[in-house]
UniProtKB/TrEMBL annotation:
Region: Disordered, residue numbers: 1-35, 240-262
Keyword Methyltransferase: no
Record-linked Pfam families: Oxidored_molyb
UniProt keyword annotations, A-Z: Membrane, Transmembrane, Transmembrane helix
Residues passing through the membrane, by range: 65-87, 107-124, 130-150, 171-191, 203-222, 270-290
Name of the protein in question: Oxidoreductase molybdopterin binding domain-containing protein
Bias-annotated ranges (Pro residues): 1-24
Residue ranges constituting the Oxidoreductase molybdopterin-binding domain according to the UniProt record: 332-468
Length: 475
């Protein structure tokens, strides 16, 4: 949308098309019987400006109105991203145990954390699906917003006063924080782990910095944004063709070019291009969360659109090979060890023993932090509450510490709350959709809990400790 200067130099100002002068898009001031007043520069300053190089930022589309339209979309979307992200973090129950807490030292930033519920069972699936899908859909809007304000990012001199320095710092945090959050989020969805530090604290702290910068920016710029949005009629802009597109009136925003080039696109075209980009990203992303036939449209799904067929034909995050699961850990010698912490009780069960216990069913999805989720799968196994009763916790069973045969890696062990153990749908599952679990889905036994992130539904389970009060990071 920017047109660089080409020799010979063009005269300053827009080039009207041949024929009658272009019609100025309706201005809201005209509705009150007055035309918008352009702020004229002093003659001496105008002469000086006319002799300056045209510079690289010559698009006639830039101006407070277009920037404000993009900003309004982000003003709606970013708070939704922030809230759904905080809820997603709370779903890990990080205050329950250090083993769950991938963001240590959060201090006051964890003020909102609460005991994550098990009802409705689809809450985490919807929350994380909205978080990831909306984040990807907003990428074209974020880039368009940055394009619209790029002249201000390179304005000279960079600092004019202490107040201007603070304004520049807030802009740096806003732009840098936004790019950091969107880039790290997209990379985590598509490429799994690619960061020098843990994704969880990086994204968590980055979100607070970014949202703080957004809040400060809105507080400082909201009046100007409202004036800009009222300065032009949105429907009239959507009817304005490229040939009739003219620059916004000059003002002190620094966004309107003093030497605008010919328009190669209307504002209607710019908005349409950004909107089409967002719609396209929605189409190739949302299916991984919505499921059903739309899963085949999820071209950006990180774990593929075709997870296979049969009872175990639904997505997984980590295969048995990737988790370095050894045959001896899940073969004939596998044992489930159940502890009752504090009462000294302990039982060791073979797979046949576990199968001999009362079996129950649950219809629950799996939802992952990367935004993908499954439809409801039909699980069969032993209720966690029944396993707690084997070691003396008959009434009101406590929380449980779950350990996997996986030797290393994040979330090889997790702590579940008492409300999760007591929910009748929480199982140590042995079967899914009428068939034995596959090795990649956690054979011989895995946890399935309603409304929990996928990594909390531990696979290849070999030890359960009910009532444990302390869990070390290396337990």
């Amino acid at each position: 949308m920017d047109v660089p200067p080409n020799p010979p130099p063009e005269p300053s100002g827009p080039h009207p098309p041949a024929g009658p002068p272009p019609e100025q898009p309706p201005h809201r001031g005209a509705a009150f019987g007055r035309a918008p007043a352009a702020r004229a520069a002093p003659p001496r300053l105008a002469g000086l400006v006319s002799r300056l190089p045209a510079g690289p930022w010559r698009s006639p589309l830039r101006g407070p109105w277009l920037t404000s339209v993009f900003g309004l979309v982000l003003l709606v979307g970013i708070p939704v991203l922030f809230v759904t992200g905080l809820l997603s973090y709370a779903a890990y129950n990080p205050n329950l145990s250090p083993i769950n807490d991938k963001t240590p030292g959060k201090g006051l930033l964890g003020f909102y954390l609460f005991a994550w519920p098990t009802r409705p069972y689809w809450l985490y699936r919807v929350d994380q699906g909205v978080h990831v899908t909306l984040g990807i859909v907003l990428v074209p809007v974020l880039l368009a917003k940055l394009w619209s304000v790029v002249p201000k990012l390179f304005a000279l001199p960079p600092v004019r006063s202490p107040a201007h320095a603070l304004d520049r710092l807030s802009l740096l945090l806003l732009v840098g924080g936004g790019l950091f959050e969107f880039v790290t989020g997209a990379l985590n969805v598509q490429l799994d782990y690619v960061f020098p530090g843990s994704f969880y604290p990086l994204h968590f702290y980055g979100a607070w910095v970014f949202f703080g910068a957004v809040a400060a920016h809105v507080a400082l710029r909201l009046p100007r944004t409202v004036r800009a949005l009222r300065s032009r009629d949105f429907r009239a802009e959507l009817r304005t063709s490229t040939s009739r597109t003219v620059p916004e009136p000059a003002d002190d925003s620094g966004l309107v070019s003093t030497h605008p080039a010919r328009p190669t696109m209307s504002r209607r075209g710019a908005l349409g291009m950004v909107g089409l980009g967002s719609v396209a990203l929605f189409v190739v992303t949302a299916g991984q969360s919505i499921g059903g036939p739309l899963r085949r449209t999820a071209l950006l799904a990180p774990h593929g659109r075709d997870p296979g067929s049969g009872p175990n034909g639904f997505p997984i995050n980590k295969t048995a090979a990737l988790a370095h699961i050894r045959a001896q850990d899940v073969g004939e010698g596998w044992r489930l060890v159940v502890h009752g912490d504090g009462n000294g009780r302990r039982v060791s069960l073979t797979l046949a023993d576990v199968r001999a216990l009362a079996q129950h069913g649950s219809a629950l999805p799996i939802a992952c932090v990367e935004g993908w989720s499954t439809d409801n799968q039909h699980w069969e196994g032993v209720r966690l509450a029944d396993l707690a009763a084997l070691v003396g916790h008959h009434a009101d069973p406590p929380g449980v510490f779950v350990e996997s045969a996986q030797l290393s890696g994040s979330f090889r062990a997790v702590a579940l709350r008492a409300n999760q153990v007591r929910d009748a749908r929480s199982l140590l599952a042995l079967r899914v959709n009428g068939a034995e679990l596959s090795h990649d889905h956690g054979y011989p036994a895995r946890v399935i809990v309603p409304d929990a992130p996928g990594v909390m539904n531990t696979k290849w389970v070999h030890r359960l400790t009910f009532g444990a009060t302390t869990f070390g990071a290396d337990t």
